[in-house]
Amino acid sequence: MSDATKPADRRAATPLAALMPDAAKIHRLSAVLTLLLLVAGFSLASQAFFSVNNGLTILLQTSVIGLLGIGMTMVIITGGIDLSVGSVLALSGVGTAMAIKAGLPVAPAMALGVLIGAGCGAVNGLVVTRMKIPPFVATLGMMLMARGLALQLTGAAPISQLGEAFGRLGNGALFRMVEMQSNGFPKVIFPGIPYPAILLLLVAMGAAYMLRRRRIGRHIYATGSNEEAARLSGVRVDQTKLYAYVMSGALAGLAGNVLMSRLVTAQPSEGVMYELDAIAAAVIGGASLSGGVGTVSGTMIGAFIIGILRNGLNMAGVSAFIQQIVIGAVVIGAVWIDQMRNRR
Amino acid sequence: MSQPPLVEMIGIEKHFGGVRAVDHVSLDLFPGEVVGVLGHNGAGKSCLMRILAGAMIPNAGEIRVNGSPVSFADPNDAREAGIETIYQTLALADHLDAPSNLFLGRELKTRLGNLDDARMLAESRKVLARLNPNFKNLQDPVSSLSGGQRQVIAIARAIYFDTRVLIMDEPTAALGPSETAMVANLIRQLQSEGIGILLVSHDMHDVFDLCDRVVVMNKGRLVGAHRIDEVTKDDVLSLIVKGELPADWTARNLEAAQ
Ligand SMILES: Nc1ncnc2c1ncn2[C@@H]1O[C@H](COP(=O)(O)OP(=O)(O)OP(=O)(O)O)[C@@H](O)[C@H]1O
Ligand SMILES: [Mg+2]
Questions:
Q1: Which residues belong to CATH 3.40.50.300 in chain B?
Q2: Can the keyword Transport be found in this entry's annotation (chain B) (predicted)?
């Protein structure tokens, strides 16, 4: 975790260690390399892949995985796992939509959606810390409950006609420049930076700051590294874990709002298996499922690898079935790398 | 002594199912005193120490600090009462570096509330140098350090803060001879500052060298509490192994006076 702080100082202290790049650095480097290879490969395979418009599409798609991945990273660093994020995403989106239908303005309705997510996360955290249920089981239960609730509340039907304002978060862009042409049709000069991408950047910076520079971040790492040692050192281990699960739930709620806003429809069946993408993003980015290791920047790289993989396979005309096979193999490969790292 | 003891443990009990790990043990510790806690493996020494450190909740018994009863729900409570502990397991977070471990739970912060890593590093450097001048790789994760270096971090963490009672559970188990001597000096120095020390050790030589008193545990029970000048190494060994003094025992210092 101190890998980015003062590399020069460290080099001076251990001249030999500087020559041998450590495992975390190799992992990060290989992830970036994979990313570049994917971009290069897909660009050759399809002309349309390497274009501004497709770049923005990838940015949009990745923002949802990225938001989920950041929350997942916090939970994974504490040594836990959150399988409920895909379902919580749906429940939050449905909650927001129902609030809008009930007459609430968009902004407070979205805040409510995020709160619903945080509430689900809090239940996860309490079940894990108070009832001492393993995170895998606790969040698996929440995965079923949140999905069931979303489907029950909506009768499994999508909620549409939510108004233009609801679609702004998912479809709007900053610095979008449109010029009216003489023939009366608008011409897009610059498509702008999509709001979801800006949101992702802000959340990523906030989370990285929290993990690196704040006390709670240090405690998250300590808890995952050695829970008993952290407890004996005076870290409030249960509160720390609760915090991580609440953050994961809240970010799933935010991701739900982004996704549903983009579709301008609340889909109770949206986000199935998204938890796997989020876990894959975190693990590809160097987070260790045994806890104590992980970074936001790594997870961002991981999220882009997953996002580009999905988008590129689509553009190359690979069927959805084959895509599943590829992503599945990538997930296993990433966890395998994690295992190899721990064995040494 | 007229002043109250720093800590008193009265009738402490701890059982795990049928196992009586600590069986009605009482103990006290005065300022500037080093008390050796001895016993065979599994005698219950670490359990007793963890109870005083707030890391384990006793089934029965009372703890008093400066004469007033306290109840420790977690290690923070004991730390606030000035009780610091070097655990037998060291209790270090492997992925964090030395400064992060030293200040874990008590991080130094800047005015904005951010972690002050620079100051924690500088402070760690100071306190670690006091114990091991060769300690240079402070910013490596502690998992990559040697057993002795890890032990030094655990010791440094216990003496850095405002300590009044120090629990040392086999603090020199992983240390080389020069580091062990350094810890012995440290113990004498802390003692002269008026700190009370509970020293768990299997090393009879260290115990006789450093301690004012010894208490001996056997199968969870307290079988002996003596001033160090009352007993010989053989007496203590007999207490540890058999749970009783040799049949013909008389206090050594009285013997000499006769
Ligand atoms: N968490 C626990 N759960 C169950 N039994 C325990 C636990 N901790 C300790 N014990 C038991 O309590 C007894 C005392 O253990 P303790 O660690 O206090 O021994 P010790 O005197 O410190 O031994 P050593 O010299 O080997 O460190 C042992 O029989 C041990 O098995
Ligand atoms: Mg012990």
A1: 7-82+164-257
A2: yes
Residue with tokens 């040594």, as numbered in its chain: A79
Q: Which of B46, B85, B221 to mutate to test the pocket of ligand 1 (most atoms within 8 A of CB)?
A: B46
How does pLDDT run across B184-225, given as a tens digit for each residue? 999 999 999 999 999 999 999 999 999 999 999 999 999 989
Q: Which of B92, B107, B115 sits opposite A226 (nearest CB)?
A: B92
User: Of A63, A257, A274, A53, nearest to A167 (Cα)?
Assistant: A257
Half-sphere exposure of A10 (CA within 13 A, CB side): 17
The CATH number assigned to the domain with range B7-82+164-257 reads 3.40.50.300
Residues near B42 by beta carbon (within 8 Å), at least 6 away in sequence: none
Burial A176-202 (b: 16+ CB within 10 A, else e): eeeeeeeeeeeeeeeebbbbbbbbbee
Q: What are the pLDDT digits (tens) for A38-81?
A: 888 888 888 888 888 888 888 888 999 999 999 999 999 999 99
In angstroms, the separation between the Cα of residue B13 and the nearest Cα of chain A is: 21
Query: Which of B209, B219, B255 lies closest to B240, judged by CA?
Result: B219
Distance between CA atoms of residues B7 and B164, nearest Å = 10
Q: Quote the ipTM score.
A: 0.90
CB contact under 8 A, A225 and B79: no
Q: What is the pTM of this model?
A: 0.90
Ligand 1: residues with CB < 6 A are: B 16, 19, 21, 39, 41-47, 88
Integer angstrom CA distances of residue A328 from A70, A325, B42: 20, 5, 49
DSSP string, B225-243: EEEGGG--HHHHHHHHHHS
User: Which residue spans within chain A are E strands per DSSP?
Assistant: 173-174, 177-180, 186-190, 193-194
* Domains of chain A from N-terminus onward: 49-343 (1.10.3470)
